[in-house]
Amino acid sequence: MSLFREVGMHAGLGRTLSQIGTERFWKQLVLLLHQCLPFDNALAIFYPLDGLPQALEEYDAQPSSKPASMLVYLNGLYVLDPFFQACREGYASGVYRLEEVAPDHFRQSEYFLNYFHDNVLEDEVQLILQLPGAGTLSLSLGMQRRFSVEETGLMTTLAAWVLPLMQQHWQQSTQRVPAAQAMASQIRDALSHFGCGVLSDRELEVARLVLRGFSSKATAERLNISPDTVKVHRRHLYAKLDISSQPELFSLFIQSLGHDLENP
Question: Which residue has the higher pLDDT, 251 or 71?
């Protein structure tokens, strides 16, 4: 069996190499990786320096077809994604586990409970490739259970050749980011605008971190203030927005995304 598996791997690698620079590259790469390790879904995506992210390939081992969920992600919800934030903060190219990039209370956040867990599932590993001057390419692998130490170790080993393949594909691709420049002036960072005109600058900072899954303690450390001060700001921003809980804050954020789509 191991001989046939190895033959299949070489054949898959050959198909992937033959598709570098074409639309089918990402699908072949995902299928090849699926021969190497288990995962339940995958998403290849490009985050430009300006403009909306662009999904390059989606894969589901058991397709459930959730186009509306992907649409809301691409149109603004991605700003709560810890991997997007890692890309924007300049994490070096490499393999990252969810625990390495997510805030301390991410799994208790409304984003995780109401979006991530239903669409990305329980755990995620992501290959990040920084493209200086252009943005970031990422390949996300989602799983219904936690990835094991052995599986994440294997992913790190595979990255030694997967990341160079992604880089080569980018360099040869003739379909990069259509109309990204034209879109950039119309796109607004949903987190930057959420609550503007109602909340103070500090309350805005606290609201953004709460939405991303930071605890009061982690928020305090990030903003260099005390946890008690964070709680005061949180009470004030809830009062100003006429809400009383994190689920309501998340709901308001989702509503603001819909408003931004109607009024670009």
Answer: 251
Q: Which of 63, 23, 64, 65 is nearest to 44 (CA)?
A: 23
- State the CATH number of the domain containing residue 193: 1.10.10.10
> Could you tell me the CA-to-CA distances from 4 to 7, 160, 161 in Å, in that order?
5, 23, 22
119 and 69 Cβ atoms separated by less than 8 Å: yes
CB 187, CB 135: distance < 8 Å = no
d(CA 252, CA 199): 14
- CA–CA gap between residue 140 and residue 168 (Å, rounded): 18
Which amino acid is residue 134, in one-letter code? A
Do 193 and 168 lie in a common domain? no
What pLDDT digit, counting tens, does each position of 235-249 carry?
Answer: 999 999 999 999 999
pLDDT at 224 over 80: yes
With CA atoms as reference, report the closest residue to 111 among 191, 229, 10: 191
Distance CA(66)–CA(77), nearest Å, equals: 15
- The answer to whether the pTM exceeds 0.85 is no
Is 183 a domain residue?
no
Q: Would you report the helix, strand and coil content of the chain in percent, each value rounded to 5?
A: 55, 15, 30
| Domain housing 233 | 188-262
Q: What is the DSSP letter of 103?
A: -
Mean pLDDT of the chain: 85
Rg, C-alpha atoms of the chain:
20
- In angstroms, the CA 127 to CA 139 distance is 5
Shared domain for 140 and 216, answered yes or no, is: no
Closest CA relative to residue 138, chosen from 48, 39, 6: 48
H or E, element range at 125: strand 123-131
Task: Give the chain's end-to-end CA distance (angstroms, integer).
Answer: 56
